[in-house]
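Bit of a strange request maybe. I'm writing a small parser for structure token strings and I need a real example to test against, not something I typed by hand. Could someone generate the tokens for this chain?
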Amino acid sequence: MVALLVLVFLAAVSSMNQSDCPEVRIPFPVFFAVGALSLAENLLVVAAVIWNRNLHSPMYCFICSLAAFNTVASLAKTCENLTMALADAGQLRMAGSSETKMDDVVDSLLCMSFVGSISSILAIAVDRYITIFHALRYHNIMTMRRTGAVLAVIWTACGVLAVPMVAFFRFNFIKIVLVVFFFASLAIICFLYVYMFMLALIHARRIAALPAGGGRKYHRQGRRGGNMRGALTLTILFAAFLVCWAPFFLHLIILMLCPTDPYCECYRSLFELHVLLMMSHALVDPAIYAFRSAELRHTFRKMFCS
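Reply from user aminoacidic:
Good idea to test on real output. This should exercise your parser:
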């Protein structure tokens, strides 16, 4: 009898928790607006980097790669949302197989975009490290040929890995690989940034301690300051990536650890909000470039005013 009462109580608590956490639905116009705006912004960044020869440098090539990955994600998600809206309105008929194929294609493109985005941010972090601490050898280390080779490896690897990741996503092994890749990349980027700022602070103190003889000291301070401003921009970029993508990976972790727990269901009910945050990352990135990069702001003005 006691056991029966316990089971009834647990069932009541479970149903209460599930009813207290209904699935959060994001209106289609919000998804479409975020996708369309992010698509336009990232295409503008790619066009600016291609159009302005002064931006043909390794760092801006990696930024262009990041914008291109964001463009892929925005285009895929916008097309999917538009297709779903047309299907709901009765303007488009989709069979079960075609709908599954479309979902697989969109998921593959989103997976490629995620791996490519974090790989591009990692490449930018390494580029900033070389710029700050190996300034005299930077142009010998980071040649455009090597930059092109790095980008080719990133895009090829992301394209090849995205398909099997989506095809076998039902296995927890793939989810574990994605989560480990996410946190390992975060750890590497955090280490590089902390190391950069600590060494830059030490170098700044040494430069400040030098006798004020001539303009060489101020030239070195200005160059170091410009490099650190670039590192600060990329730190903001990294923070935006973390805020936008971390909830989704927490969703994956919860999905593996407690797939049926009613308390975990409350967090899983926010899945559409997590997807919106992922899409918002592609919207926030170009705003960071335009706000922090004087060269990009100048290029945008020339593109629109000419």
